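Propose amino acids for all 305 sites.
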């Protein structure tokens, strides 16, 4: 017979879940590009006209989550050193955190409480398109009936995957790719600048993760040759890239990196651009819906021309 957990044990487990949610390491990197967005967010705070929920939408790794952190500092009236441990902030990344319906309910409960130090509570949910259906529906209920003095910020590079009812209840802030001129102060070499495709976040990873740069370069070369390869030859190269791990999250990242390389080649080849982009867009949609990464990439190499 299963042992019924005491109320104290349940409360302790809930506390542990929330501690895992808010325990986050926030690296201090400069915000690059999209300066108009930060100015707009500052105007919201200065005027006192702050919505209860925002959607930060735009290309991947252009600084949406970094901007959400800046916005959170404005709303909480705190500096960078205080942000990561601020008791009125909840921050999670749906790409790396397990955001179950239980965790989302805990977040909702935290937001409905009175702030401890600031004027309001703030929640940042990065990569919101990866939330489970149950977690997204729990989030929707909160957006439909906001409780307490709280602000929720969702970031996503796949607005089309989010529930339309969720998007309709957000104040949308749009981000764009960052120009090479704006990224020139990041100390990037020419190869990294080209592969980054206007995404500062991707540029930083490529600059400081030599192994990723080597992989990205190889992947780019593969995409450039893929039109001359048979499907069998494409599968052999795909095996080389995706072998070595069976962890779902790692396979998702690998597939995403492969698609990043494909997008880079698209930008350099106008003749193949339309057909390749269509395949890549559909592949990203499938990945966002948690399709098997290997199956998605097999579909890509079979259908790309």
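Proposal:
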């Amino acid at each position: 017979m299963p042992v019924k957990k005491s109320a104290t044990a349940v409360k302790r487990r809930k506390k542990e879940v929330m501690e895992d949610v808010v325990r986050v390491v926030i690296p201090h990197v400069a915000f690059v590009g999209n300066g108009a967005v930060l100015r707009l967010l500052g105007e919201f705070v200065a005027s006192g006209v702050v919505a209860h929920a925002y959607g930060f939408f735009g290309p991947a790794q252009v600084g949406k989550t970094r901007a959400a952190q800046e916005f959170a500092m404005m709303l909480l009236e705190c500096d960078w050193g205080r942000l990561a441990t601020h008791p009125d902030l909840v921050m999670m990344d749906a790409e790396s955190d397990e955001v179950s319906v239980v965790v989302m309910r805990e977040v909702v409960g935290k937001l409905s409480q009175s702030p401890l130090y600031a004027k309001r509570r703030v929640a940042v949910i990065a990569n919101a398109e990866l939330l489970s259906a149950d977690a997204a529906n729990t989030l929707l209920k909160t957006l439909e009936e906001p409780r307490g003095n709280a602000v929720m910020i969702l970031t996503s590079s796949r607005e089309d995957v989010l529930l339309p009812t969720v998007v309709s209840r957000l104040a949308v802030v749009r981000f764009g790719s960052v120009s090479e001129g704006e990224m020139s102060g990041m100390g990037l070499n020419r190869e990294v600048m080209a592969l980054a495709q206007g995404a500062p976040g991707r540029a930083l990873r490529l600059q400081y993760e030599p192994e990723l740069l080597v992989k990205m370069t190889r992947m780019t070369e593969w995409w450039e040759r893929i039109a001359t390869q048979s499907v069998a030859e494409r599968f052999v190269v795909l095996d080389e890239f995706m072998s070595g791990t069976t962890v779902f999250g790692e396979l998702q990242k690998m597939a995403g990196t492969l698609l990043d390389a494909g997008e880079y080649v698209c930008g350099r080849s106008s003749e193949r651009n339309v057909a390749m982009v269509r395949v890549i867009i559909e592949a990203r949609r499938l990945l966002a819906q948690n399709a098997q990464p290997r199956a998605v990439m097999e579909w890509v190499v079979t259908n790309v021309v």
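The beta strands are 53-57, 89-93, 121-126, 150-156, 171-174. Residues 248-268 form the longest helix (21 residues).
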